[in-house]
Amino acid sequence: MPRLPDVLKTRPAKIAGFALLGALLIWQAEAFVDRQYKAAVVSVFPADPDASALAALKERYAGDRSDWPKPVVHANAVVKEMEALPLPAKPEGTQLLKVELGRQLFEDPALSASGQIACQSCHNRELGWGDGLRTAFGHGRQKGKRNTPALFNAAWRPELFWDGRAETLAQQAVMPMTDPKEMAVEDLDQVVGRMAGDTVYRNRFRDAFGDEAISLERVTEALAAFQSTLEERTVFDRFLAGNSAALSDEQVWGLHLFRTKAGCMNCHSGPLLTDDKYHNLGLSLLGRPLADTGRYAISQDMEDVGRFRTPSLRHVRETRPYMHNGLIRELPLVVRFYEVGAGKTQPRSEEEAADPLMAHAGKTSELITPFTLTARERQALVSFLEAL
């Protein structure tokens, strides 16, 4: 905003009333023009901006979020404004002992039937709490159909897994253990009994829970306690907290594209950068070896055929490959995928066309519409995504 003119710093008694009014009007007009210029800069931002345009955009986004350009989204999108994710205090006392016990359980292959697969086999800290594979493999080297979800912010999510079949971390913890393609445990009591026969585990459970009793409920509670500590602060969190230097001018341009031209906020908004809903991206691959009906397998609602839970984009740089089936390995290719309007499931034969699920599988989400980015815009968007 323009500086207050010198005439307004003079004692009112020393200047004429009209002079004061005129100076004030000039100052207000200059301020209005300044605001309008900045608004114009971001409302129709050039596809090939120079340094001054990028600096003006950075200045706008460095200010109060209430003054940010509004996101451009579909009328039916459920959108929350971006904000830093508040992290809980570090665990102490008994809760810390539960976290440490949960970490030990998480790393212990004794939770599997073969004694060779631990939770960390698929959720590796060094690989963004995933496994870096397109789809996971488990018991007997069996391949699954889905990409391993990252665990960073699992404690904040109302539903877990790509199809949302678990509502809590404790509930989720049992499912991989009993899945025949993952840890393949047929009798969970045997797993509990194995720990009960281990002096070290009895002592750890006593320290965490007050006595040596070991139960499935305590096992899953400890695992959930550990998984609740995995989220970390990001570069974008620092920017949202007021450190405008945390993002480069190019990354702020990417932020603007994320909110406007690319339409990313239709599904990715709020502190977790997800709407926690289920959308069809045209990747159910119905009729093919990796066919997956998604949420439908849980809800049995035909409208859910091919719909999968929106992942959080926090730490997205670390969690490749992408999509529920790990189909896309790199972020630039993810951007390209959405530029063309996502995928499309179509029948390849009369038999497939007759499948009652096919008509629903072919309904790509209305929130996804094609758009076109220049090479510079695409790079800016990817650069921003890498800061999330």
From TrEMBL:
Outline the extent of the Di-haem cytochrome c peroxidase domain.
Answer: 98-244
Keywords from the named record: Heme, Iron, Metal-binding, Oxidoreductase, Peroxidase, Signal
Which residues are listed for heme c 2 binding in this entry? Answer: C264, C267, H268
Give the GO cellular component terms, alphabetically.
cell envelope
Tell me the cofactors it needs.
Answer: heme
The entry's free-text remark on the cofactor is: Binds 2 heme groups.
| Maturation and modification | Binds 2 heme groups per subunit.
Q: Where in the cell is it found?
A: Cell envelope
Q: Looking at the record's lineage, which domain of life comes first?
A: Bacteria
Q: Which residues bind heme c 1?
A: C119, C122, H123, H139
Question: From the UniProt record, which GO molecular function terms apply?
Answer: cytochrome-c peroxidase activity; electron transfer activity; heme binding; metal ion binding
Q: Which InterPro entries match?
A: Cyt_c-like_dom_sf (IPR036909), Cytochrome_c_Peroxidase/MauG (IPR051395), Di-haem_cyt_c_peroxidsae (IPR004852), MauG/Cytc_peroxidase (IPR026259)
Spell out the protein name for this chain. Answer: Cytochrome-c peroxidase
